[in-house]
Amino acid sequence: MKKEIRELRGALLDLTGVLNRPQPDAALIDAAGVDLDRALFPLLARVARQGPLGIVELAELVGRDYTTVSRQIAKLESLELVARCPSPADGRVRAAIITDKGRVMTSALDAARQKIIEKLLADWEAEDVRVLARLLRKFADDALEWVGTL
């Protein structure tokens, strides 16, 4: 099993490398036909999926400094893509939440992402895609649970 774990680690590093490059985000934004600074994209996506989120929590999720995230959320707020509200978990914290305008944009981005992934998986057997989705979700859930214990 050591060989398989080494291969898994290598694949995860390769995927992380792809996801951390600026070109895929720029291509996705272009394919969606939206006008959005590439640096703001990960924040908008996280707020849409997991919001409302406080700045510190969001900074942790995207691996950025909270002061940078604070400035970027202010920019998203000025574009009316997110709004700020009291956090449900802690009323002293102002959390970012997606707006209707932001949801329209993330829907366009989701549709573009769907097309890109469908193209990547076009030559795969349907059962292989189902297995990948199930196992990747299981692995991600276990990783999230582990991170929660740190």
TrEMBL record:
Keyword line: DNA-binding, Transcription, Transcription regulation
Highest taxon of source: Bacteria
Pfam family, one: MarR
SUPFAM superfamilies: Winged helix' DNA-binding domain
Gene Ontology molecular functions: DNA binding; DNA-binding transcription factor activity
InterPro entries recorded: HTH_MarR-typ, MarR/SlyA-like, Tscrpt_reg_MarR-type_CS, WH-like_DNA-bd_sf, WH_DNA-bd_sf
Domain HTH marR-type: 1-141
Any GO BP: response to stress
Name of the protein: DNA-binding transcriptional regulator, MarR family
